[in-house]
Design brief:
TIM Barrel; 3-stranded parallel sheet; binds beta-L-rhamnopyranose; binds manganese (II) ion; manganese; L-rhamnose_isomerase; Xyl_isomerase-like_sf; metal ion binding
Length: about 425
């Protein structure tokens, strides 16, 4: 299914008067509006191929309907999102959940929706049918060299799939670790993992990056071999200039100061980018901005400040991706909400008066520093984000149009109500 341009135009027309009035109100608040709109138009968040169907927990999964049955239909779904918001112009594949069969055809299909391929993700946290050796006790860390070699070969295979599609990064997330004290020798696990990553790193094309993702716990509950940003940074530094640390917002212990982590990784030139989601307890994988939008704003504030300090391009120099699981909501609606939350946090961060904040910091004016941040956070930037979409031919209100156009019903009619997408 595709949403016709004239359908979007009609929708925008019907909301135009109200939009202009709201936009006018924000224009009174800032003289930066035009620059912010331009940056918003350039910004893009990749959609994971594994989160277009219904997710589940270990207690069960309550299926939705009209889920994409194959990679082509997943691309079609991301195409729908991008047509609606002009900010979802890429897809991140998980191998082997989404192995492309005909690269040229897949590239052409994605191109027809204006989509490109973001980082490719390897999977050594599950055993695949017919796989000779098991990952039950880890993959790149495994005590048995043959298991490590199998996991290395898989990662190199993933690079080759990604290369054929035009991806430029490999994300390695390892479930490796231990669930009981004494199970592992920490140092040996680290050394095995590093040695394995080194072989994969050597297989990277020269214009590729390797993203080393960390996670504090789950599925292992005593130690994770890439458990926090310190460990990830150790690997990234030892591997070399093409390796970076990837921050998934749900992968920290409770109350970790993620914005400070981001600031320091950026300072070191080692921040890969993000897996966005939200959480209250752990790796909850909830809709971005649904629990703690203020934290998201504070993270973006560090991102904007840190990227500007290094002269980086906000849109292209880091990897921006959603990594969430949609257990209750329609995945496409959920993703529209997530992208919107990211765009709002980014717009609010762009609104921060950086010079005034610097002056307040130099004067130890704590009160004023808080005022400056909250002035930006409490400004209603929704009309700026909507204006960026309008100018790009996307929808003023993507979710509203998605519902009014009956997109999910059309997808169910086309695909059936009992389809199951590969993924989480
Ligand atoms: C992990 C991690 C990875 C993602 C898998 C599906 O918790 O966040 O990034 O690829 O889940
Ligand atoms: Mn992740
Ligand atoms: Mn996760």
């Amino acid at each position: 299914m595709r949403i016709a341009a004239n359908h979007i135009a009609q929708h925008n027309e019907s909301l135009q008067a109200k939009h202009q009035a709201r936009l006018h109100a924000v224009l009174q608040e800032t003289d930066q509006a035009e620059a912010i709109i331009q940056k918003l138009m350039a910004f893009n968040v990749a959609i994971p191929s594994w989160a277009l169907g219904t997710g589940g927990t270990r207690f069960g999964r309550f299926a939705g309907a009209g889920e994409p049955r194959n990679l082509e239909e997943k691309i079609e779904d991301v195409g729908l999102l991008h047509a609606l918001n002009n900010s979802s112009g890429s897809i991140s594949l998980h191998i082997p959940w989404d192995i492309p069969k005909d690269y040229a055809a897949i590239r052409e299909l994605a191109g027809s929706f204006g989509l490109s391929f973001d980082a490719v993700n390897s999977n050594t946290f599950q055993d695949q049918p017919g796989q000779p050796l098991s990952y039950k006790f880890g993959s790149l860390q495994h005590v048995n060299k043959a298991v490590r070699e199998q996991a290395i070969a898989h990662n190199i295979d993933v690079i080759q799939h990604g290369d054929a599609l035009g991806s430029k990064a490999l994300t390695v997330w390892l479930a490796d670790g231990s669930s009981f004290p004494g199970q592992l020798n920490f140092r040996n696990a680290f050394e095995n993992t590093l040695e394995s990553l080194e072989v994969i790193y050597k297989a990277l094309p020269s214009d590729w990056k390797m993203f080393v993702e960390y996670k504090a716990f789950e599925p292992n509950f005593y130690s994770m071999t890439v458990g926090d940003w310190g460990q990830s940074l150790l690997y990234a530094n030892k591997l070399g200039p093409q390796a970076y640390t990837l921050v998934d917002l749900g992968h920290h212990l409770l109350n970790a100061n993620i914005e400070q982590i981001v600031s320091l990784l950026l300072m070191e030139g080692k921040l890969a980018g993000f897996h966005f989601n939200d959480s209250k307890y752990g790796d909850d994988d909830l809709t971005v901005g649904s629990i703690n939008p203020y934290q998201l704003f504070l993270i973006f504030k560090e991102l904007v400040e840190g990227m500007d300090a290094r002269g980086m391009n906000h849109a292209t120099d880091l990897g921006w991706m959603i990594d969430a699981s949609h257990n209750l909501k329609d995945p496409l609606e959920d993703l529209l909400q997530s992208v919107e939350a990211i765009m709002l946090a980014y717009a609010q961060a762009l609104l921060v008066d950086a010079a005034a904040l610097k002056a307040a910091q130099l004067n130890n004016d704590v009160t004023q520093a808080q005022e400056i941040l909250q002035q930006a956070y409490r400004t209603d930037v929704r009309p700026l984000v909507a204006e960026a979409r309008l100018r790009a031919g996307a929808a003023l209100q993507p979710l509203q149009l998605y519902r009014n156009a009956g997109v999910r019903k059309a997808l169910v009619d086309e695909r059936g109500s009992n389809t199951v997408a590969t993924g989480l």
